[in-house]
Amino acid sequence: MSDFRPLTDHYSVAPQIDLEDVAAAKAAGFALVVNNRPDGEDSAAPQGDAIAHACAAEGLAYAAIPIGHAGFSHAQLDALDTLLRDATGPVLAYCRSGTRSTHLWALTRARAGDDVDAICAAAARAGYDLAALRPMMDALAGDA
After folding, report:
1. How do beta strands 5-6 and 32-35 pair?
2. Which sign, positive or negative, has the C-alpha torsion 43, 130, 63, 31?
3. CA 11 and chain centroid, separation
4. What angle do CA 89, 95, 98 make, to 5 degrees?
5. What span, in angstroms and rounded, lies between the C-alpha atoms of 6 and 40?
6. Which residues pair with 32 in a beta bridge?
7. How many domains, the chain?
8. pTM for this structure?
């Protein structure tokens, strides 16, 4: 069952998706699926290549920005910035629970100069608490 949680009109997050969720993503109007899980993190979950093939079969773009135990890097924020800029429609990002996908988006948007309170509110509406991430978001917003 699909659990797509919108953060904006053009960006949603989800816990781990299954192959059948790719068709649901297409039906929901998504143009790009972003995988934020490293392959092998959970051998029982569909790996990136399987999701990529399912996306191709549905005519969806696919990208991977894996986020592991090392946390977030500017290169990952740059990669999401590029994907969001070049996306031809709404984006669905997923990880195990949706938290890493939400955090990556929040850090990327804070670095771009978006209002940090609004970012936190959008995440809260989707069920994600950004309180622990707030100092990093504020620091990135100060650099914008």
Report:
1. unpaired
2. positive
3. 8
4. 80
5. 27
6. 61, 91
7. 1
8. 0.95
Within a 10 A sphere around the Cβ of 23, how many other Cβ atoms? 14
Q: Which tokens is 75 given?
A: 């290169």
CA distance linking residue 109 with residue 113, whole number of Å? 6
End-to-end CA distance of the chain: 39
CB 67 within 8 A of CB 95: yes
CATH at 41:
3.90.190.10
Dump pLDDT digits (tens) for 23-40: 999 999 999 999 999 998
103 CB burial (10 A radius; 0-12, 13-18, 19+): buried
Structural domain containing residue 16: 5-143
Residue-wise pLDDT tens digits, 94-118:
999 999 999 999 999 999 999 999 9
**Tokens representing residue 70 in the block:** 């090392």
| CA–CA distance, 106 with 111 (Å, rounded to integer) | 8
